Amino acid sequence: SDAKGMSLTIAPTISCNFGCGYCFQSHSKKRMGREQIDDLIRFIDERLTPGTYLAITWFGGEPLSAFDVLEELAPQLHALATEKNCTFSHSIITNGFLLTPEKARFLAGIPGFGYAQITIDGSREHHNRSRPTLAGKGTYDRILANVAECAGILPITIRVNVDRNNADTLEELLDALRERGIHDKVHVYLGHVW
Predict the structure, then answer these.
(1) Which helix (H) or strand (E) segment is 88 a member of?
(2) H/E run at residue 188
(3) pLDDT digits (tens, 9 = 90+) for 35-51
């Protein structure tokens, strides 16, 4: 048979600690409970064809705000893929605010980890305006500090959402990465916001 592997996006929670003006999602406090975790594992176990692949993207909301769910699922899904002789890969899309070296080491320690994608929208001023906490506080400095602490532990891709309001602030972000000595440890790419 022409069996294909499985690519899944898993949201441990749809809750988020940010209030980004351009976000398309409506966030509630919902997170995966015991029943959803068991259902998901059963779903994958029943459908994953041996000898193929299982590719996971951890997403949200903010997936790191339900890190306990991720801690439970990641090793189990890796074990399930291994048992079925499938290759396993996983990456995370996170705002980076809750990323710590401990969490980075955990993610990197599960075989097949690809990268953490973190959004930083140009300069401190623009980023803090477009990506504040729910309480309206700036997030730029903490995210950059977390990136600097974790860049040696796991691959980090920085996504910069670009529109006409921040296109001229990209140099400032690159300078900030350079100042922290991480410009050559992260991959930066631009996403056009319409």
Answers:
(1) strand 87-94
(2) strand 186-192
(3) 999 999 999 999 999 99
